[in-house]
Amino acid sequence: MNTDTPLEERIAELRAGTGDPRAMVGELRRAVVLVPLEGGGLWTAESGGVRWILGFSDEEALARFARARDAGDGRDTGRSWEFAALLGARLLDEIVPAIGVPAGLAMNVADRDGAMLFPPVMGIVPDAVAVDVDVTPGGQG
């Protein structure tokens, strides 16, 4: 029985070379994304000059991350992980721009074959915060 979420299915298709990137982004925008909370805010990590929000497609994906994180620290804390459940569109359209630096979404990072990065580029985040917008002199894109 396939228990993948529609977003996980679109990610798998794209990773297999058969998917449509626009369909995957559309599915992300419709999906509820679970984001762990840390220090009173959303859990993020910086890599390659981008601030990545860590998002998960369901509680099982978040649990795999929690187990991997605890194992990487050499301990099994058994602690509960608080998280926010946010619509993907809200993450991309409101939260990413509010971060104030180039930011994107890293989905299911503990799943070797199911992880996907949604970088801060046109078609994923608003053009105003996309890093690949070509701005010509005079402010016209």
Automatic annotation (TrEMBL):
Taxonomic lineage from the root: Bacteria, Bacillati, Actinomycetota, Actinomycetes, Kitasatosporales
Q: Looking at the record's lineage, which domain of life comes first?
A: Bacteria
UniProt protein name: SseB protein N-terminal domain-containing protein
Instruction: Please report the organism this UniProt entry assigns to the protein.
Output: Streptomyces xantholiticus
Q: Name one Pfam family in it.
A: SseB
Sequence ranges assigned to domain SseB protein N-terminal in this UniProt record: 7-110
